[in-house]
Amino acid sequence: MNHILIVEDDIALSNGIILALKEPNNVFTQTYDIAAAKEQLNVTPFDLVILDVNLPDGNGLDLLTHIRKKTMIPVIVLTANDMETDIVTGLELGADDYITKPFSLMVLRARVGVQLKKSRYSLADSIQLGDFSFSFERMEFNKNDIPIELSKTEQKLLRILINNRGNTVSRDHLIDSIWTDGAEYVGENALSVTIKRLRDKLEDHPSSPQYIKTVYGLGYTWALK
């Protein structure tokens, strides 16, 4: 599933974006200002953000800066400003693409498709976090230069947590994202077991985890940045 956050105060345009992008694999969260967007970003891992620059409570580029401090999820900026300096500023702050208003919803759909494909490979080929070195493309995982063998399910779980490090990922989102083989029902125990196995392989003291922390009542977070 692709979870898309739309930050656009024009309700008609926001609804139009959903109509243009609507398909079975896309789900949407609509927010209309920076404050509400930050609340959603704190609790939900998104695959793409469509971000208007002119918002009621501030400049959308400030929200872009906030996002880039936490994650590298793709961000498409919507702006009524077609000045070269505005475009350059957005790209320098980490926007993946920009579209100036008014725009064709078909063009937006095409550009969103490009960014969603990129988001599946949004982690660098090799990422270093403290004593860990993870390469998801080569499926090589090391702690203190010692190889760690991870199952495909454990790799999926780790990748989601790493890509949203510092943020809480809900149990429901993890279950939906990891078990995508068409099974009608996957018990929550499957996630608990996978979390335990991953902790056993990565943590120095699995019963008192430093890296994969439980956020009670919500989900899990990767605490090492």
Automatic annotation (TrEMBL):
Keywords: DNA-binding, Phosphoprotein, Transcription, Transcription regulation, Two-component regulatory system. InterPro entries: CheY-like_superfamily, OmpR/PhoB-type_DNA-bd, Sig_transdc_resp-reg_receiver, WalR-like, WH-like_DNA-bd_sf. This is Response regulator transcription factor. Residues 124-224 bind DNA. The modification 4-aspartylphosphate is found at D52. Residues 124-224 form the OmpR/PhoB-type domain. It comes from Paenibacillus ottowii. Residues 3-116 form the Response regulatory domain.
